[in-house]
Amino acid sequence: MHEAAYEVCEMNARYVTFEPSEESLAPAINGAEALGIAGLNVTIPFKERVAEIVETDPLADRIGAVNTVDFDGTPIGYNTDAIGILRAFEHHDVELTGSAVVLGAGGAGRAAAFALADEGLSVHIANRTVERAETLANDVPNASSGGLTDLEDRLSTADILVNATSVGMESDETPIPKTALHRDLAVLDAVYTPIETRLLRDARSVGATTIDGAWMLLFQGVEAFEIWTDLDAPIDVMNRALRDSL
Ligand code: NAP
Fold first, then answer.
1. Tally of domains in the chain
2. What is the Å distance from ligand 1's center to 193 Cα?
3. Structural domain of residue 186, as residue ranges?
4. What's the CATH code of the domain at 102?
5. What would the mean pLDDT of 197-223 be, rounded to a whole number?
6. Closest residue by CA, ligand 1 atom 44
């Protein structure tokens, strides 16, 4: 999707991948800057370590994870996963008010919880390992926490549901029974393999608004493109390229 954007914007640029070792992470980032590389995306397992290596913007600092580095001046780390979630909801005309349930307390769960809480929603974080949800809820304003079971009551009054667990990835499992879903929910699944997860199928069948994980993936990339280039991203072109590749 990035190279499709460069092409349509007539930029002489490439998006390439590197796989540094744990030990060479800091020299790799310094080396990228020294080589005049415009920016980096960072993925698992390095998002937390990079947040300690470069200066972070306030949101990435609070999340404690960086997925985008901009080398324009002092290297700054951003978390566009969080912004991507908000932009995915906005793109689907979902009003971000009321209450949200975030399933998962890993990297994607942290990004979702902070992003939604910063929009003023009350956020309930539900995770298989309850202690991890509690730890996250202590950091996120206006958040509560619990396990993945017995969510029916909480979901019955919720406006937003985000699945940020890996349940449903490459499988037909769902983290939430269909009976807990209702038509007033907007459901975003961070999982994008498959594009239509069982959770989204169930949500659609009860009349809920559904947003697949490719939208989150798209908008974290759109945001990164805009940080690196200071241009408006060609969203439709990037979306088509991304979906063609999934
Ligand atoms: P992570 O940090 O490893 O966290 C994984 C989360 O899934 C944890 O909350 C974990 O719970 C939970 N989990 C794993 N297996 C489970 C199971 N069998 N039952 C219940 N909960 C389970 O991973 P992540 O980076 O947050 O990614 C989570 C998902 O989001 C992945 O599918 C990833 O591909 C997707 N993602 C998508 C985007 C996007 O742009 N669309 C971006 C980032 C991630 P415990 O704490 O109990 O282990």
1. 2
2. 13
3. 82-212
4. 3.40.50.720
5. 98
6. 108
